Amino acid sequence: MIEIPFINLAVIYPEIAIFTASVIVLLVDLFMKGEKQGTLSTITMLGFAAAAIIASRQWFHFETGFSDALIADNFALVFKLLFCAAGVLTLFLSVHYLNREKIFRGEYFFLILSSTVGMMILASANELITAFLGLEVMSVPLYLLAGYDKKKLLSNEAALKYFLMGAFASGILIYGIAFVYGNLGTTNFDEIYRALQGKTLYGEPLLLLGLGLILIGFSFKTAFVPFHSWVPDVYVGTPTPATAFFSIAPKAAGFAILFRLLFKAFAPMMPDITGILWVLAVLTMFAGNLIAIAQRNIKRMLAYSSIAHAGYILIALTTGTADGAKAAILYLLAYTAMNVGAFGIVILLGREGEKDLSIAGYSGLSRRHPIAAAAMALFMFSLAGIPPTAGFIGKFYIFRGAVSAGFIWLAILGVVNSLISVYYYLRVIVIMYMKPEAESDRVITYPLSLMVAIILAAWGTVQIGIFPNSWLNLVRDSVSGFF
Amino acid sequence: MYMAIFILFAIMSIAGAIMVITLKSPVSSAIALIFVLCCIAGLFALMGALFMAALQVIVYAGAIMVLFLFIIMLLNLKDEILGEDEKKVTRVFGSILGIAFLLEIGFFVRRALTVGSESLMYPVPEQFASIEVISTGLFTKFLFAFEITSVLLLVAIIGAIMLSKGEGKTEY
Predict the structure, then answer these.
(1) Percentage of chain B surpassing pLDDT 70?
(2) Which of A129, A136, A204 has its CB closest to that of B152?
(3) pTM metric for this prediction
(4) Cβ-Cβ contacts under 8 Å for A262 (sequence gap 6 or more)
(5) How many CA atoms lie within 13 A of A388 on its CB side?
(6) Which residues of chain A have a pLDDT value below 50?
(7) Which range marks the domain in which residue B103 is found?
(8) How far apart are CA A36 and CA A87, in angstroms?
(9) Per the CB < 8 Å rule, is A206 touching B109?
(10) Which among A102, A298, A399, B97 is most buried, taking Cβ atoms within 10 Å?
(11) How far are the Cα atoms of A163, A429, B36 from residue A423, in angstroms, in the given order?
């Protein structure tokens, strides 16, 4: 007789909400005639809103289900809320852009929604196979979003590169999972934790190999150096709103699973692998920041800057403490706000056919478009980590966490990298405010949806920067029960 | 006897895998891949996982590889399109890294046989990889993973339609 496992659907209510919305989007797109962008984006928005409401109501419920394959603790829920926020902001960024580039199709919303389903699974996965499938459900729509602008060669290239790299990463990841399973006989995080008691990583070569391969697999998704080579081309070729989504949500999902994997399942091994993470963090920060200096294209610069930011969050991962996890969540929230804002301005200033993306083209922007220039300056200050913005608060807590955990050198190198990054962020501001106006027939319209996204992002950036207390409370609650 | 058959299948599958990546013509590569998959099916059978062996042959060597061959023939790739691989340096560098990676894995496995030998000595469970065990696992312990695969397939189907739906020429 087969024992039916305890299925607790509550643990996937937010996923169900989003997936339902995605199926409705497909059906409405199929049967509706005429202008449907408004309807489809409303449905998408409602899906995200429903998921966010459900997730916030599950706060402190600590649901588990499906034979402990999934867990909806506060840590998972805060990431689910983050994905909903990123999804909604991306939606606001997209509406105008899709019309301008004349590439609107109903599948766009479906892809954003289904990718979010995968991220949510990844955030609440408590088992390696589930995590792998969550990663795939997240990634496949992302490959398609990269190649969404089918008629552009750059977009085709982005999709192909992303797909091939992602496929290799998945292969490496599943190979690692096989080694871990072969060594411990389980894929469940709690059981892995119990099985690891009294073992050292270097006494178990296959476990070391398995964990290493798993780390490589996830490192591709979060784009740590040296697994970052796909990032610039993919970010440049992808439609800009989708690029904003790429730089935030999948990265956050990758960090969510890395935190759960290293802080929960492999916690007994954590001291053995901090060395590896240390090197990865330093490499990621330096490579991202130094290459970003040389970039002339704003999207490419933001791509390298996103690599560098992953490096800062990696510092928090390396510390292995609750403070580190808190700092990382806070940083991801801040990064969501400021990066969506920066990409919003890039979309606002762009023209049909993805023209006008060179940084030099922004010269003298402050005279003709003072509001856009001021907003861009705010986001650049925040990305550089200058107070009183969200970026400063995020970096402050990350470096403080590193120092209090005894990683003095890592904190120092992080600060050095922050200083390097100031150069290329401030260069954008200098070009906008101090260079003479460029000869340009740039005409800016201020579409409502895009303005909503930029205003929300600016609000988030300033709010986290000036009144961080409520955010710190949220972050503190989100790791409760995790340690 | 067991060891001899194992070594035979192992060598054949590795040789086949090398042929997959070195042969020039895509059709020969695909056929070499079928050969590799059949050898792996043999390895599964050798471990007593008969169901896995059958799946390997039916699903991979049968269904998926036929699709592969079908698509390769539809694309009708000629030598001019495939072209010469000019980047010799990348190729050499890549193979050095690949071999290093392989040796690394081999080193770990070798060490595992000496250091952590105790954990490698799991007895093969009763009815290892039988239909019953796999299906029970799918509908109990891995129920969620099993169900979420359908979402993955839905996304893949939509994506395939989205990408292949004709909408004019690519702009260069």
Answers:
(1) 84
(2) A136
(3) 0.93
(4) A270, A273, A317, A320
(5) 7
(6) none
(7) 2-77+87-165
(8) 19
(9) yes
(10) A298
(11) 33, 10, 53
Q: Which of these, A160, A162, A37, A18, lies nearest to A107 by C-alpha position?
A: A37
DSSP sequence for A159-208: HHHHHHHHHHHHHHHHHHHHHHHHHHS--BHHHHHHHHTT--GGG-HHHH
User: Domain containing B114 — which CATH number?
Assistant: 1.20.120.1200
Which residues in chain B are contacts of A153 at CB distance < 8 A?
A: 170-172
**Per-window interface: A 244-283 vs B, CB < 8 A:** none
Let me know if residue A296 belongs to a domain.
yes
| Residue B172: pLDDT over 60 | no
- Does B171 fall in a domain? no
Closest residue, chain A, to B115 (C-alpha) = A203
Chain B residue numbers touching A105 (CB-CB < 8 A): 162
A1 assigned to some structural domain = no
Sort residue A4 into left (φ over 0), alpha (ψ -120 to 50) or beta. Answer: beta
Three-state secondary structure of chain B:
CHHHHHHHHHHHHHHHHHHHHHCCCHHHHHHHHHHHHHHHHHHHHHCCCHHHHHHHHHHHHHHHHHHHHHHHHHHCCCHHHHCCCCCHHHHHHHHHHHHHHHHHHHHHHHHHHHCCHHHHCCCCCCCCCCHHHHHHHHHCCCHHHHHHHHHHHHHHHHHHHHHHCCCCCCEC
Average pLDDT over residues B119-124: 61
Mean pLDDT of B104-124: 72
User: Domain of A401?
Assistant: 9-478
Q: Does B172 reside within a domain?
A: no
Report the alpha-carbon distance of residue A374 to residue A391 in Å, rounded: 17
Cβ neighbors of A91 (< 8 A, separation 6 or more) are: A41, A44, A45, A48, A109, A112
Q: Is residue A3 part of a domain?
A: no
In a domain, A328, yes or no: yes
**pLDDT given for residue A6 in this prediction:** 77
Domain count, chain B: 1
Q: pLDDT value at position B168?
A: 57
Handedness of CA A361, A367, A370, A376 (dihedral sign): positive
> Would B105 be classed as within a structural domain?
yes
Q: Total structural domains in chain A?
A: 1
Chain B environment of A207 (Cβ under 8 Å):
116
